[in-house]
Design goal:
By secondary structure, the protein is an alpha+beta fold. 12% of the residues are buried.
Length: 177
């Protein structure tokens, strides 16, 4: 099933490129194409591996608004079931409670801020203003983007544990109900 979805996406992308080539132009993504809400379909590394941070079957939501703000949230699979506390935990919590909270944090990622788009390079850049991990406040994340129909693909080069790789995220537009 996953393999057939990948082939369907590849065929759809090739169809868009073919139509544009027949018309003598390259497919172009515009700033307007990005605006809206997007649901995460998949994250891959080097086109074959599951992303080491999120795992297989992760879920997410990305929202771009016309004023230039965005918000993204991604959760990995296998998240532990942790009850919402009625009050902030005290500093004297047990070690097992701390491990459970760390596992919950390690399986979730979120940040928000402003975004910009460079049409010449088809690059969207996220300018973080706040993040789950405070060290990422004010970070910038450029990534190549292509929108074809209701599908959006991000790709970016990254280095994980000294290994250069390409991470690809597939998103699908969420339709209004």
């Amino acid at each position: 099933m996953i393999l057939s979805r990948k082939y369907a996406l590849l065929i759809a992308s090739l169809a868009v490129v073919s139509v544009c080539a027949a018309e003598g132009r390259a497919p172009r993504t515009s700033r307007q194409d990005l605006i809206g809400a997007w649901r995460l379909v998949s994250i891959e590394v080097d086109g074959r591996e599951v992303d080491p941070f999120y795992g297989n079957g992760s879920r997410g939501l990305l929202i771009y608004d016309a004023s230039g703000w965005f918000s993204v949230q991604i959760e990995g699979t296998g998240r532990p079931n942790l009850q919402v506390p009625s009050a902030r935990p005290s500093k004297d919590e047990s070690e097992s409670a701390m491990r459970a909270e760390t596992a919950v944090l390690d399986s979730y990622y979120a940040y928000y801020g402003t975004w910009s788009f460079d049409a010449a390079t088809s690059t969207v850049t996220h300018h973080a203003k706040g993040a789950l991990y405070p060290s990422e406040d004010e970070a910038t994340y450029p990534q190549h983007v292509q929108v074809a129909g209701k599908r959006m693909t991000f790709s970016r080069s990254q280095t994980i544990a000294g290994h250069a790789s390409v991470q690809t995220k597939q998103w699908v537009r969420i339709s209004a109900r």
